[in-house]
Amino acid sequence: MLPYQNPQLSIEERVEDLMNRMSVEEKVRQITCAMIMPNMDNDKLDLKNSMGSMTIFGSQDLIKDLTNAQEYVIANSPHGIPALIHGEALSGPVAMPGANLFPAPIGLGASFEPELVSKMSEGTRKQMYAYGIRHALSPVSDLARDFRWGRANEGYGGDPTLTSVMTVAFVKGLQGEDIKEGIACTAKHFLGYSQSESGMNMHKSMASARDLRENFAKPFEAAIRLADLKCVMNCYSEVDGEPVCSNERILTDMLRDELDFKGVVVADYNSIRHLVMDFNTAENLFEAGKRCLEAGLDVELPTRMGYSDEMIEAVEKGEMDVALVDRALRRFLTLKFELGLFEDPYPHPELVAAAMDNTENNKNSLEAAIKSMTLMKNDGILPVRDKSKKILLVGPTGNNLRLMYGNYTYIAMLEMLVSFSTMGATQPGVEFEEDDDKKSAFDDLANMLSSINFSDKSIIDDTIRKLYPGATTILDGLREVFDSVEFVEGCDYKGDDASHIAEAVEAAKKADIVFMAVGAKNGLGATASSGEAVDCTSLDLMGMQEELMREVFKANPNMVILHTDGRPLCSEWAYKNVPAIIEGWLPSTYGGKAFAEVISGRANPAGRTPVDVPRSVGHLPVYHYQNNGSSAVYDRGLLKTGYIDSDSSTLAPFGYGLSYTTFEYGNLSVEKDSDGKLNLSVTIKNVGDLDGDEVVQLYGKDLLASLIRPRQELIGFRRVALKAGESKKVCFTFKPDQMSFQNVKGKWILEKGDFKFFVGGHSDDVRAEAIYTHEITEYIDHATRSFFAETCEELV
C-alpha cells in the first residue's frame, strides 16, 4: 500500500504523496471534467490518463452507467484516482427519476422555515450518495432584486439575511455531519450575478463594491464560516471590467483571503470559453485557461477547453509554472480525500431502494408547498368552506403539472432531454422492471418523439403522474375538496390566441366563485417564459393572461387569483381590483393540493414574500434594505423624489403575507448579556379564532453613521405556530456587530450610537420597537461577527 492509499495517514500527507507521484498530464487532467453520455464506448470518451470530474446526462440505467464510467476512469488513471461526479440539487436530485422533489428555492424562501430546507437536503443527500454522485452544484445564493432576470426562482429571495439562513441550512443538510457520507455543496454564483445590466443573464454586474461585499457575499461567507462550505462556483458576469472567472480580486483576494474559503472553486459551465468568444480578453483558450487558473479558478467544468493539452505542454516546456496547477490540484485532491472517495468511489445499489423511498420526502414536500403559499390579498372571500359552491377554475396553469416545477428539477430536465433526443426508446431514467409504471412512462415519451411539440405545456404531464403518483394539478386539488368544479382554460400561458376567452367569460357568469390560475413556465428554451437565459423586458403576465383575467373579472368579480411563477405577480390592476390573491411560487408535485388546502381553510396560509414586489418593471430594483435617501419619497420644497407617473412604493413589502387569524405583539425587551450578545424578546398572541403561524421578523437600523447605511436590515426571523388564544415568547440572540460595516479604509467597524430594533409581520410593519445604545466605536473581527440572529420560542 502506497502512502496516499493509506486512510490512516492525514489527508495532507496523502495529498502530498500522491502529487509527488503524478505527471504533469495527470495533474492537469485532474482539474478538468468530462460529460458522460450513455451508450457511448468509454474508449471514445475523454477519460484516459486521469479525469478529475464527471457528469452524466440522459442515462437509462444511472447506477450501471456511473459504475462503468468510474471503473473505467480508475482503471485508466496512472494512480487510480476516482472522478468526482456532480449533479444539480436545488429542489432535489436532478439526475434521478422519481427522486426527492421540493418546491423551487424561492418558494422555500417564502416559507421562512429553514428546517424545511434541511429536510429536503437531507433526503437529497441519501439519494445522491446511493447513486455515487458526491458533488452538488447547489445551492444558489444569489439575491433576487430584478425580476427581469429569469433565474430569480433559483435562489431564496432578495434579502441577504434570509438567503444566508437558507443557504446554511441547505449546506448543513446536504454535506451532513460526516462529509464521508455527505455531498460536497457548491454555492453559486460568486459574485453579484443576479444584479445584472438590463436584468439579463450573463451580463455585467451592476452592484457596487460595497454592495457586493456586504450583501451579495454575505450568504457565501455565512456558509463558509458556519457550515464548512466545500465548493464555490464563479458567475458568468464581469465586475468592473474583469470577467469573474479570471478576476483574482474576487476569487482570491475576497473569497479566500477575506472570506477565508479553503475549498474548491469550480467553473460555471464553459466560463473559460467566454473570455475568448464573448469578453474578448483572451486570444485563445489556453491563454484564457491560464488567466483563470492564476485568478483562483481550480476546476474547469464541464469539459476540457482551457485546462487542455496545450496547458500540459506549456508546463512541460517550462512556459507555465507548475505551481499554478499544483495549487488547484491540492485543493481538489483534498476534497476527494475528505469525501472518502478513494475508499468509496462507486454507487451503492444496495442503498438505492431505501434512499428512493420517498414516503417521508413526499410528506415534507407537501408541507413545504403548503407553508410556501402566500396570501397577498383577501377581502373576505377566503377561505371557502362551503363545499357546495359552484367553482370555476380558469387559466393556463389550472390543469397542468409541468408549470408547477422549476427549471432545475428532474421534470424540466427530462422535458429538455426528450426534446433533443434521437435515441428512440432510450430515455433518461433508470432501468425499470417490465411491469413498472415508471418504465411505461418512458415508453410513452419514446412514442412521442416523432411528433413532439414542446409548445404543448402538457406534453409530459402523464409521465409526471407515473413518476409521482401523488402529483396534483390545481384542478385535481379543488375537485378533492369541492363538489362542483368546472375548468375552462381560456388561453395558453404564451401566445396571442384569445379565441377561448369568451367561453371562460360565459362560464364565469354561472359560477359562485372564479379561481384564476395564471403564471409562467420555468425552463430552458423558446417554450419557457422564465428560467435560465429566459429573461423578460416586462413583468406583466405573458400572452393573453392579463386580458383573460380582466374580461372574466367583468363577468364575475368574485375572483381569486392563483399565481405560480419564479417571480411574484406584478399587476397593479389585480391588487387594486381582485378580492384575493395567492402566490404559489413554483410549488412542485403537490402544488395543486397545497392551493386547495389553503383555499378551503384546511391550512391557514403563512407564507411570506421573500422579495419586495414591484409595481412594474420601471420600478426595479426594489428591496427593503436600500440605503437611506434612496428608498423613500421626500419633499424638499419644489423638489420631490419619486415618480411623477406612479406611486414609488411596492405592491407588497418584503416579508409580507396574510393569515386567516390575527396576532398581537407585546412586551418587547432588549438587553445585553455578559458575552456581549443582545437578547431581544417579544410576546406574540394569536387573538383570532383559528390556529395559525406567524413569521416574527426582527429588523435593525443604525440611526447615525459615518457612511450611508441601509434604511433597515433583517436581523432574524422565526416562524411560530400558535393555537387560537395561545401566546409565545419569541427570543432573538445576536451580537451587535451584525450591524457593523466596512469604513472608508476597508476596516470593519461598529460605531457608537443608537440602534433601533423593531419587530413585526413584515418589513414595513412596526409592531414594537426598542433602542439599543452602543457605547464605544470599535473595530470588528468580521470573521466572527453575527450573520443572523439565533431564535427560540416558549409558551407563555
Automatic annotation (TrEMBL):
Return the InterPro entries for the record. Cellulose_deg_GH3 (IPR050288), Fn3-like (IPR026891), GH (IPR017853), Glyco_hydro_3_C (IPR002772), Glyco_hydro_3_C_sf (IPR036881), Glyco_hydro_3_N (IPR001764), Glyco_hydro_3_N_sf (IPR036962), Ig-like_fold (IPR013783)
Q: What biological-process terms (Gene Ontology) are attached?
A: carbohydrate metabolic process
Give a single Pfam family match.
Glyco_hydro_3_C
Cytoplasm: present as a keyword of the record? no
UniProt KW Transcription keyword:
no
What GO molecular-function term can you cite, just one?
A: beta-glucosidase activity
In this chain the Fibronectin type III-like domain maps to 694-763
Q: Which UniProt keywords apply?
A: Hydrolase
SMART domains registered for this protein in UniProt: Fn3_like
Q: Which PANTHER family does this one have?
A: BETA-GLUCOSIDASE (PTHR42715)
Q: Which family does it belong to?
A: Belongs to the glycosyl hydrolase 3 family.
What is the protein name given in its UniProt record? Fibronectin type III-like domain-containing protein
This protein's species is Paenibacillus pectinilyticus
What taxonomic lineage is listed for the species of origin? Bacteria, Bacillati, Bacillota, Bacilli, Bacillales
